[in-house]
Amino acid sequence: MEVWFVIVVALCISALVSSFLNLFKKKLPPGPPSLPLLVYLIWLRRPISELEFILRRLQARYGPLMTLTIGPRKLVFVGSHSLAHSALIQHGAVFSDRPTPRATSKILNRNQKSISDAGYGTTWRLLRRNITHEILHPARVKSYSSSRRWVLSILINRLVDTSKSESSVRLIDHFQYAMFCLLALMCFGDKLQEKQIKEIESVQRRLLIGSRRFNILNFWPRLGKILFHNRWKELMRLRLEQEQVLIPLIKYRIRAKQQSLSNHQADEEAVLAYVDTLVDLQLPEENRKLDESEMVSLCSEFLSAGTETTSTALQWIMANLVKYPHIQSKLYDEIISVIGSRKSSQQQQMVEEEDAQKMPYLKAVVLEALRRHPPAHFVLPHRVTEDIELDGYVIPREARVNFMVADMGLDPKVWEDPMEFKPERFLPTSSGEAFDITGSREIKMMPFGAGRRICPGLTLALLHLEYFVANLIWNFEWIPVEGDEVDLTEKQELPTVMKNPLQARITPRI
Predict the structure, then answer these.
(1) CA 23 to CA 69: how far, in whole Å?
(2) 109-376+410-444+447-508 has which CATH code?
(3) Sign of the CA dihedral running 48, 54, 55, 58
(4) What are the backbone dihedrals phi and psi of residue 66, each rounded to the nearest 5 degrees, phi first?
(5) Which pTM was predicted?
(6) Across 445-509, where does the E strand assignment appear?
(7) Is the Cβ–Cβ distance between 78 and 403 less than 8 Å?
(8) Looking at 148-241, which runs of residues are DSSP E strands?
């Protein structure tokens, strides 16, 4: 390892010295007075999971706007609600670009051909407009209601079967499988077999979990391809496996759609699939359609964004409802108040989406869990496109900016008793005004980001969380495992998960 460090120093010393001298040209946000070279070498040897802990210590010393110079890069971190609002809402255009794609991203996202990774330009606008107008439009989301009922029945049956054979249920496995069933149907337009779902789930999770191991490949990739040859081969092999799993599903959907159109056959139960919307997209900057590999990247993004974060958030919500039975009871009482008790409504076996919209306490429970346990503790990095002043400091052009999402949700200056789980804080005010999760008026928390780069699936994610939580509480009573207290300790993966996955005893209410 020492030999590798010497090689790195020899290759980049001139660039790092230049970066160090540039620190004095502009009044950057304060930060630790470390030499860029030393900081860079230290960070190469530290796991990324230590970043949040270190940032909290630095924030106590330097304030809510800090600069870390790691190698040739200037990283600016924002931990203030008001500064986040100023950057993302008031100066959104300047802060809405993405950094130049890293080496691994070029492989996985085909050189920024994904919504989350694309630069702030015409391609990004096309891809985002496509998903928001064609898939996430309220009318389209409603058309997937039968798909949600189907997935809910799968989840309920799996939980019932597991509870009969085991004393407790490990929930995250069932949540992830259910979300993959739902998102795969929305993506490819078909109810896939369990074997197909498992193949998709396996390759997607291996890429997600491996992303931290592959991160080192982004530091001087040319040298890394020599020093970490086997890891590069592993990344390429995983990408190939992903294409081998997803491309046949994409091709099958395209052929089926073309055959249906040529035969003038219309399936009344068919839904518009995400793949359907990608086929005829014309990339404006290149004047061509998407190739299959680029479709794989977009489908992968769609699946991961809709499954990992939602299933993780669902587990955090249920963990708090198991830990705090009085909150679970209050939520169950609200459900009864809306749809009636089982004695008076024997025909209603599930909470419908329209019912869930009438449950303010349900919404409050979901929002409180997103505040207390946001699946992502940081957003994807932004890149500023020009020098801009923020809080009296200059954020230089090309700087990478990130936002301390988890810390904003725990700020005692904004939230009373921030470590406590209190859904009541999100109940509508006396004027009937609901909490603005988009942060357009004021940012108090931002689990979905904010501004022009806010997660386009925000409304769909909230719908899924509310719908599944309501039905899980309606169908089962959730009880802690005797002698095994619910542990809310976090583990930093992608996304941030429970260190000890939730195990619970469930009792059908029927």
Answers:
(1) 9
(2) 1.10.630.10
(3) negative
(4) -130, 155
(5) 0.89
(6) 476-480, 490-491, 497-498, 503-508
(7) yes
(8) 169-170
Q: How many CB atoms lie within 10 A of CB 414?
A: 15
Task: Name the token pair of 418.
Answer: 């921030």
The one-digit pLDDT tens for each residue of the chain (510 residues) are: 454 444 445 555 544 445 444 544 568 899 887 655 556 555 655 555 567 888 888 888 999 999 987 766 788 999 999 999 999 999 999 999 998 888 778 888 776 788 998 899 999 999 999 999 999 999 999 999 999 999 999 999 999 999 888 888 999 999 999 999 999 999 999 899 999 999 999 999 888 887 777 777 777 777 767 777 788 888 889 999 999 999 999 999 999 888 877 665 555 567 899 999 999 899 888 889 999 999 999 999 999 988 999 999 999 999 999 999 999 999 999 999 998 865 554 546 789 999 999 999 999 999 999 999 999 999 999 999 999 999 999 999 999 999 999 999 999 999 999 999 999 999 987 666 789 999 999 999 999 999 999 999 999 999 999 999 999 999 999 999 988 889 999 888 778 899 999 999 999 987
Whose tokens are 């909470």? That residue is 351
Phi, psi of 281, rounded to the nearest 5 degrees = -65, 135
